[in-house]
């Protein structure tokens, strides 16, 4: 396994590790997150563009060091045992397995990290985006994760980003308003999350 520049949450794996990872992720698009049933809540659609599963995990602190919990896995394609989840948020434009809509706690900032996974040829790529954001009560949002894998031997590492948008109703229909985009570049605020990203996992 080889990590590229330490300034990014990105890496690629050789054929052997990629094959093991493929066995570990096949057919996954699960939801294990337990939603709040009362109190101040927001509705959020989490979406990903990857054909292989992308995992979304949460942490109790911005350093990503406490109480890691997997929330869901998203896959832009067919899965053996799908677990679709919709709340009726407007402007759905995703495969049934590529997005899930859930209620989240709107009383405090949430720290989350997308762990994207993709395979091409003899390589597997992972790309992570940590984010901390406070969703406002009674509002609708979409958090869209997009991963781009290298298209040539010159560009050897993947890139990824997660864009948070508010979805609101207007007289002419629903509108998606981008609020903030998080990328896989390491910053002073996200550097401590790198240890979680670097953990050896069979995804």
Write structural notes for this entry.
Helix content is 8%, strand content 43%. By secondary structure, it is mainly β. The radius of gyration is 17 Å and the shape is globular.
The topology string of helices and strands comes to EEHEEEEEEEEEH
Identify the overall geometry: globular
Low-confidence stretches: 1-6, 15-27
Structural class: mainly beta
Helix count? 2
Strand content: 35-45%
Instruction: Report the count of strand segments.
Output: 11
Sheet with the most strands, sense and barrel status = 6 strands, antiparallel
Distance between the termini: 14 Å
Average of per-residue pLDDT values: 87
Evaluate the radius of gyration. Answer: 17 Å
Helix content: under 10%
Q: For the largest beta sheet, what order do the strands appear in spatially?
A: 1-2-8-7-4-5
Summarize the structure in short:
With 203 residues, the chain is mainly beta.
Keywords:
203 residues, mainly beta, six-stranded antiparallel beta sheet, five-stranded mixed beta sheet, 2 helices, 11 strands, globular, disordered N terminus
List the helices and strands and how they pair.
Elements: E1 2-3, E2 10-13, H1 15-25, E3 41-48, E4 54-59, E5 69-74, E6 99-105, E7 110-120, E8 123-133, E9 140-148, E10 159-170, E11 173-183, H2 194-198
Parallel strand pairs: 3-9
Antiparallel strand pairs: 1-2, 2-8, 3-6, 4-5, 4-7, 7-8, 9-10, 10-11
């Amino acid at each position: 396994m080889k990590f590229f520049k330490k300034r990014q949450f990105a890496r690629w794996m050789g054929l052997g590790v990629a094959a093991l990872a493929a066995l570990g992720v096949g057919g996954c698009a699960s939801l294990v997150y337990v939603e709040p049933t009362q109190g101040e809540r927001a509705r959020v659609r989490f979406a990903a563009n990857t054909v292989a599963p992308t995992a979304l995990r949460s942490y109790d602190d911005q350093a990503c060091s406490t109480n890691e919990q997997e929330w869901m896995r998203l896959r832009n394609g067919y899965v053996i045992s799908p677990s679709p989840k919709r709340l009726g948020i407007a402007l759905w434009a995703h495969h049934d397995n590529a997005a899930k809509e859930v209620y989240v706690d709107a009383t405090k900032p949430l720290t989350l990290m997308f762990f994207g996974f993709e395979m091409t040829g003899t390589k597997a790529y992972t790309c992570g985006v940590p984010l901390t954001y406070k969703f406002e009560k009674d509002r609708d949002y979409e958090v869209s994760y997009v991963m781009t894998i290298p298209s040539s031997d010159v560009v050897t590492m993947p890139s990824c980003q997660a864009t948070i948008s508010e979805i609101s109703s207007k007289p002419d229909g629903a509108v998606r308003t981008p609020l903030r985009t998080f990328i896989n570049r390491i910053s002073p605020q996200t550097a401590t999350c790198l240890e979680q990203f670097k953990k050896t996992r069979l995804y």
